[in-house]
Design brief:
Pfam family, one: Bac_luciferase
Strand order of the largest sheet: 1-2-3-5-8-9-10-13
InterPro entries: Diverse_substr_monoxygenases, Lucif-like_OxRdtase_Rv2161c, Luciferase-like_dom, Luciferase-like_sf
Protein name: LLM class F420-dependent oxidoreductase
Number of helices: 9
Distance between the termini: 8 Å
Oligomer: single chain
Radius of gyration: 19 Å
Order of helices and strands: EHEHEEHEHHEEEHEHEEEHEH
Organism: Streptomyces xanthochromogenes
Length: 309
């Protein structure tokens, strides 16, 4: 079975949001990409009080200095396309009021004819929590659990009612409803988050950091699903943060998904393990503008299909 390919939409500072998002979305769909994705960064701390991903001393990339709002970006893409699924990888759940986010996702799904995939996570940036968090960083898992509860209530039949730590919904009619049940994807970076995924989510959103590591994570997740009695399959979409260069990467220890388009495709082939059927290619950081992003996306897609993946 051929792998499915998704493309990261242009959200970074080198792009014109109103012009480039619809253009890239339309082109990606025409090329054959089956999904379009956004990510979330709400600010760029200067000076940074915390390293990237919480790793001490790891600098934030300059491309994070301006990242467009994910739901605005996805709405522009929805209006410009008719087939591609519309995913978030990921929305940082505790930076959103649960009821409002549930309604926004439902409205986008209704408007797009049932194409939304809700990828949700807890994030890692203390600065982002200080600016926009609805609860302290220490409560991030509880906020995500409440968001999942609120989404299930808001997306379900009326009357909607819910009582939680952050949210109180008196019995009410809440619409519009999603066009179909919105799939929820979660990361699984800890034992607790893995259990949450197995028990509550439709899919998994890992980040590609090497084929061996991905295989080990996938095996552990499948074992956990069997232990907890899950019978339905876990959908998987692997995030690939590619760093494309015009020339092949010649280093002895080439990091995965760096170098030429052909090298990126070689790494995709290595990561296409049994049961892992979709990859989100985020190429926007390697392109100077939308035209270059479209050309690169077309090149990688063509090489993937030519390789029989």
């Amino acid at each position: 079975m051929a792998i499915r390919l998704g493309l990261g939409l242009p959200q970074m500072k080198q792009y014109d949001l109103g012009r480039d998002v619809p253009a890239v979305a339309r082109t990606a769909e025409e090329i054959g990409f089956e999904s379009l994705w956004v990510f979330e960064r709400v600010l760029f701390p200067e000076p940074a009080t915390q390293g990237l991903y919480g790793v001490p001393g790891l600098p934030w990339p300059d491309s994070y200095r301006s990242v467009a709002d994910p739901l605005v970006t996805l709405t522009l893409a929805a209006a410009a396309t008719g087939r591609a699924r519309l995913g978030t990888s990921v929305l940082v759940a505790p930076l959103h009021v649960p009821f409002q986010l549930a309604r926004s996702l439902a409205s986008l799904d209704a408007a797009s004819g049932g194409r939304v995939v809700a990828g949700l996570g807890t994030g890692w940036s203390h600065d982002e929590y200080a600016a926009a968090g609805v609860a302290p960083f220490e409560k991030r898992g509880r906020v995500l659990d409440e968001l999942l509860d609120v989404c299930a209530a808001v997306w379900g039949p009326d009357p909607v009612a819910y009582q939680g730590e952050l949210t109180t919904i008196a019995p009410a009619v809440v619409g519009p409803k999603p066009a179909r049940p919105i799939p929820v994807y979660l990361p699984a970076s800890s034992p607790k988050s893995a259990r949450r995924l197995v028990d509550r989510a439709d899919g998994w959103l890992p980040a590609a950091q090497g084929a061996a590591q991905l295989g080990e994570q996938w095996a552990r997740l499948q074992d956990l699903a069997a232990e907890r009695g899950r019978t339905r399959p876990i959908e998987v979409c692997v995030r690939v943060n590619a760093q494309h260069g015009p020339k092949p990467f010649e280093g002895a220890e080439r990091p995965p998904f760096t170098g030429s388009a052909a090298q990126i495709v070689d790494d995709l082939a290595a990561h296409a393990l049994d049961g892992i059927e979709e990859f989100l290619l985020d190429l926007q950081g390697s392109a100077r503008d939308a035209e270059e992003l479209k050309d690169l996306a077309a090149e990688v897609y063509g090489l993937v299909r030519a390789a029989g993946l």
